[in-house]
Amino acid sequence: MTTGTEIINQFEKFCDPSLAESWDHVGLQIGNPDKPVTRIMTTLDVRPEVVDEAIERQVDFIFAHHPVMFHPAKDLDTRNPQNAMYAKILNNGITVYAAHTNLDSVNGGMNDWLADQLQLQDTVPLVEKDIDPATGIPRGMGRIGQLQHAMNVDEFADYCLKVFNINGLRLIAKKGDTRQIKRVAVLGGSGSEFYQTAVDKHADAYVTGDVSYHVAHDILANGLVVVDPGHHIECVAVKGLHQLLEEWKQKNNWSVDIIETSINTEPFRFVTK
């Protein structure tokens, strides 16, 4: 018998909750982790359709990247879809755990997975947080490293479409920019506030999501190329978390099944003229 607490303790040896940003809400979200776990499902988001899938597939532990209870509930009126989802999770005895900005900062976590997709070499944290006491290696959000081969701006945008398997993205670059992209920074989620760090660390291009209009103008003025492929590229966490849990399952002889959600939680669709 394996409990949720055993799973959480193993994960937090790898990814300490203290790595999370002060505004974040990581860790146990809903449920009782002391209950036995038979099936874990990894997901980027916990949305009503994901919960329905978990119930249908007899999942009793959801391991997510994005917190399900990011903002406290003001009431438990189940006419509210979010509250109705909480009730469904509880009624079906599901435990929900989330690793968010701590997974973004840990070595071997979210931003390494994204850097691997871009095949960046010689990577280091973009925004250094601390030094891992166990290894002496810096930890922090984002990564910056070198592409295997330089490419121009349009080629790099096309490359991002392919490696992230997306139908569209927003490119922030001056018209006629002929530079070669070689040194690249990446930070999953909403990382536009760190564009100046990418500039200071001599990135040719920065890949991050949710860039706002006025920040995009500031980026142009600073001469940085930015590719905004959206927040949902963090779906790499579904596979990444699955692989980590499988490794620990073998190591600890956990008697659990580990599956990945089949739900695409991207809320946006790209409409072209």
Which features would summarize this protein structure in a list?
single chain, 273 residues, alpha/beta, Udp-n-acetylmuramoylalanyl-d-glutamate--2,6- Diaminopimelate Ligase, Chain: A, domain 1, 2 domains, six-stranded mixed beta sheet, five-stranded mixed beta sheet, 9 helices, 11 strands, 32% helix, globular
Structural domain count: 2
Label the structural class.
Answer: alpha/beta
Write the CATH homologous superfamily of the largest domain.
NIF3 (NGG1p interacting factor 3)-like
Strand fraction band?
A: 25-35%
* Tally of DSSP β-strands: 11
| Overall geometry | globular
Number of contiguous helices = 9
Main β-sheet, in a few words? 6 strands, mixed
What share of the residues lie within helices?
25-40%
CATH topology of the largest domain: Udp-n-acetylmuramoylalanyl-d-glutamate--2,6- Diaminopimelate Ligase, Chain: A, domain 1
Instruction: List the uncertain runs.
Output: none
What would CATH call the class of the largest domain?
Alpha Beta
Mean pLDDT, as a whole number? 97
Task: Write a structural description.
This protein has 273 residues and is an alpha/beta fold. The protein has two domains: 4-103 and 235-259, 3-Layer(aba) Sandwich (Udp-n-acetylmuramoylalanyl-d-glutamate--2,6- Diaminopimelate Ligase, Chain: A, domain 1); 107-228, NIF3 (NGG1p interacting factor 3)-like (Udp-n-acetylmuramoylalanyl-d-glutamate--2,6- Diaminopimelate Ligase, Chain: A, domain 1), CATH 3.40.1390. 32% of the residues lie in helices and 26% in strands. The strands form two sheets. The chain has a six-stranded mixed sheet with strand order 5-6-8-9-10-7. The chain has a five-stranded mixed sheet with strand order 1-4-3-2-11. β9, α8 (213-221) and β10 form a beta-alpha-beta unit.
